[in-house]
Design a protein that fits this description.
- There is one protein chain.
- With about 110 residues, the protein is α/β, with parallel strands linked by helices.
- The chain has a single domain (about 5-100), classed as Alpha-Beta Plaits (2-Layer Sandwich).
- The protein has helices spanning about 15-25, 55-65; strands at about 5-10, 35-40, 50, 70-75, 80, 85, 95-100.
- Strand 1, helix 1 (about 15-25) and strand 2 (about 35-40) form a beta-alpha-beta unit.
Length: about 110
Amino acid sequence: TSYSILVLNGTANPAASTDAVARLEAAGWTADKVIAGAASTTSFATTTVYYSSDADLGAAKGLADLLNAGSIVQSNAYTGASGTPSPGATSASTKQLTIVLGADYQLGTATPAP
């Protein structure tokens, strides 16, 4: 829960991002660490967690397990700075993961937090 999480809704269901944010907060993330928005399209097929450095892989896997993401990808496409996600920006002080919700995202079916 030390990472900031950017939730992008890549589905046609507006409730998907609200559901994901609620599940993250129930798992211990504070509201200031979770930012939700719309993806560039609503036709993503697979829910995907994006992480930027090798050191973030474990956290990405944990997020994927929590929200039942079908894919985990290393990419700098969604790195952010100072808790505000900004494509292409990087910051050593801000750890961020991004999850793009896809058509396979199931409302209310997350793995319970330990």
